[in-house]
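step: validate -> pass
step: tokenize input -> pass
step: predict -> running
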Amino acid sequence: MADIIAVLQCLDQCLSKTTLRQLTCMVPAMLAMSGRVTMLGISRWTDKGGSYRTVQRFFNTVIAWSKVQWYFIRHHLLDPEDTILIAGDETVVTKSGHKTYGLDRFFSSLYGKPVPGIAFFGLSLISVKHRVSHPVMMEQVIKPEAEKQKPKPSKPVKKQDSKKRPPGRPKGSKNKNRRDVELSPYLLQIQSMLQSLLRLVGADIQPIYCVLDGAFGHNYALQMVRQCSLHLISKLRCDAALYFPYQGPQKKFGPRRKYGDKLNYARIPDQYLKVSCVEDAIHTRIYQMLMWHKLFADPLNVVIIVKTNLKTRARAHIVLFSSDLDLAYDQLIDYYRLRFQIEFNFRDAKQFWGLEDFMNVKPIPVYNGANLAMFMVNVSKALIRHFRPACPFFSVNDLKAHFRGRKYVVETLKLLPQKPEPISIDQLFAQILTIGSVNAISNSS
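step: predict -> pass
step: emit ->
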């Protein structure tokens, strides 16, 4: 318990004494408990002062979780000499019933189809040096009423008498500024989160890149990120229509040409080849070039990774891009790979800390339940660091086994009529704390 109090002491700047005391009771319970992480389950594993009513009051308290996460990361996990990226992604939590706030149908990549549940969008700080992700923000995604009531598109009916639109550009139409875009409510919510995060961390670190998955590989997301003074790193469709910059002579009058030849992914010029290697009968080639896309306002720094199976001659490629035209190809690839670390945050939060288990239905408890699960991801990383020198592969399963065994020993010692000798207690701790762990350590802390 004393260790947890010391770890959470840095939060006294952003939490009231009552809320911090409640959190101090709940964190050891969540570290030790088995089964589903619900309010009732947490209350059963807490010590004195952690009744169900106490846990219920905590879940109904308005908490600035972004400050809580950032103060904890800054105190325990942040390396001042590290390069920090901002990564964002959405996760879906399946829910049944009809009363949970924000309940709707959202597409789940795990199921491969829309499922009933609630969705959250999270922002994390990714450490390039340590190659881990630290969640900072988690907000619920609420579908607008207009989108819910939108009728399903019906099959178009061909009209025999309707006139076809004449070829060419309509008379009187004007050029549109692709930088002046109207963002959707979803992108506006993400932009607000990015701006809040930058204000929160601005005095300590200054991130440059925001890494998002292929769902944000379009001009609207790019302009949304650029308006926050960040550079976007994302992925384009594999059949994206890219054009080389025009290098030929320009006309004396009229607009200047900027689109050259269209890129043929099967025949990419060798002058843009950066790396070519063969490993396990897979030929990998990496190209980097400055390209135009007609739906984007500015040129893109494009990196294309082409893999060819030398045995079957099967070929596949992915197209990464960044708004930073000076970013090297190896850094662009590495930064985009690091984006997947946020998926491990969601996995741990669902598997160990109750992101998939909480049964709250009102807005504030739902928000607190999701953010408490993400906060425990950071707490577990801070605690695991103390065990890694003795056991390099110490995991979350080992951490929970350690705290569960310690709780069993403490409760057992309370029942004994006479307290054993200190050396016997140490031997008892060393024996019990390894039960259920995958990677046992020689000396328990």
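step: describe -> DSSP finds 13 helices and twelve strands in the chain.
step: cleanup -> pass
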